[in-house]
Amino acid sequence: xxxxxxxxxxxxxxxxxxxxxxxxxxxxxxxxxxxxxxxxxxxxxxxxxxxxxxxxxxxxxxxxxxxxxxxxxxxxxxxxxxxxxxxxxxxxxxxxxxxxxxxxxxxxxxxxxxxxxxxxxxxxxxxxxxxxxxxxxxxxxxxxxxxxxxxxxxxxxxxxxxxxxxxxxxxxxxxxxxxxxxxxxxxxxxxxxxxxxxxxxxxxxxxxxxxxxxxxxxxxxxxxxxxxxxxxxxxxxxxxxxxxxxxxxxxxxxxxxxxxxxxxxxxxxxxxxxxxxxxxxxxxxxxxxxxxxxxxxxxxxxxxxxxxxxxxxxxxxxxxxxxxxxxxxxxxxxxxxxxxxxxxxxxxxxxxxxxxxxxxxxxxxxxxxxxxxxxxxxxxxxxxxxxxxxxxxxxxxxxxxxxxxxxxxxxxxxxxxxxxxxxxxxxxxxxxxxxxxxxxxxxxxxxxxxxxxxxxxxxxxxxxxxxxxxxxxxxxxxxxxxxxxxxxxxxxxxxxxxxxxxxxxxxxxxxxxxxxxxxxxxxxxxxxxxxxxxxxxxxxxxxxxxxxxxxxxxxxxxxxxxxxxxxxxxxxxxxxxxxxxxxxxxxxxxxxxxxxxxxxxxxxxxxxxxxxxxxxxxxxxxxxxxxx
Length: 628
Prior knowledge:
This protein has helices spanning 21-40, 49-70, 79-92, 97-115, 127-137, 139-142, 151-154, 166-170, 174-183, 198-212, 226-231, 234-243, 249-258, 270-286, 290-305, 309-315, 317-335, 339-361, 366-394, 401-426, 430-456, 461-470, 478-510, 514-539, 544-572, 595-626; strands at residues 41-42, 45-46. It has 628 residues and is mainly α. The protein has a two-stranded antiparallel sheet.
């Protein structure tokens, strides 16, 4: 019967809908078929009639559920529905278990990619929580050692799973255990544990494997990231360790299940993990598993490269940008099913990995790196804050400047607190950090765009004079003041968060030279402050029309930069598919050769340009009478 025929002591009542709902249930169904079918059919004949009937039912349920989920959005042909239909046909035909396992695995990956299903915990599992949950919920059936030798187990049909059985763990993954805890297993004593939080279910899922390998010899380290440890069975982990040349793969597997899954990855291993996962992505693509290949490429970036990116960017910004671009191009070629391009981009990425790995061994120049970081991030924030301050003073509303100052001052501790919270308390995954950066950047871009549009629509000085006469008291109301404060906060918050992240990386690498980091930071800040003061005094001398024209162009440029950075983060984290195009890349302006981001930026340019043209057309008729 089912691989997880588990009878647990607690039968919790259903709470909220399980993670992913029916889409997650679909992934669980095809996972069950891929793992259990070999128990039902051997050499083209039914070996276990009850198990075979269950596999037929699961395969039929998966196809029916997939068709319902696809609905009117189903493509023609639809890869997911085609795989589900193929899976059902193979089961009915008593096909070879290896072929059934392959098709079910591909169907699961297609479902995961299509419905954006979580296949890994957002933070490292906890041994202590897992052990407590196991004792509270599972010991009565599975026993303290997980061998299912209990009085309760003797009364259950089918009997509960023994997690000490190697052949069972070979086909089991934490992701599959997580699904069993989420949905239960029909026809067994395994209840759905929807009342447990997702974090608790992941803790239990990983603890089962730790328990299953108690007493075995372990040898680390291993370079498998958390997403791989969550989604791979023991057999697949062994294959991966063999492929990477681990000296004792079996002991490496034990280390992965008992230690690596619960511990933060060692520092400095990012490039190695990224390199291995990128190779796996290319191998999956060559094997016809495009959805899995894309997910592995995302994991290579988020779980391998992104955690060490701040330190690498401080040392080699051009090389870091090249790696990001290579990841984007690789995923784009995969999306277009272009085998030649995938191989070419894989070679490029491999060469960049070699270069970056060598860079990891070279010490950074702490002073210069810190000065450059603080100048680069600070000047972007200073340009916007300076333009806002000059604008409100031009309008004769000196008191409004206090709101602008309040916004950027609040952003500094907020940036520090946010990254401390993410790194120390919430342990957000890299994809969540990318998402947070994208949201902040897009919000700032939206506000910047609206302000620049408003300013350029009044670029002609005569309109500004009339505007000020009509609105000298009410031109900046309470609502507008809070908008100014919010814009100042968003712009500086984004730069502050990045600065803190890069500084932390520099301090870790600087060792005894931390004083140089702070000295460089002080120099960078001093240069930014000096330039800001010069800019504020210069722009105040400009006539109204040219001042607002220059300011609106500056704000529009920053809106374009922030919008491009936000869209780039969404693509990098896998929230948007890559849509590569041939276009020059200008990283400091947020311009990347991806169609999604370029369309957003083009829309900003088009709308602001239209506002400027409309203002010039208003100016022309008014200028003609005065020239006679």
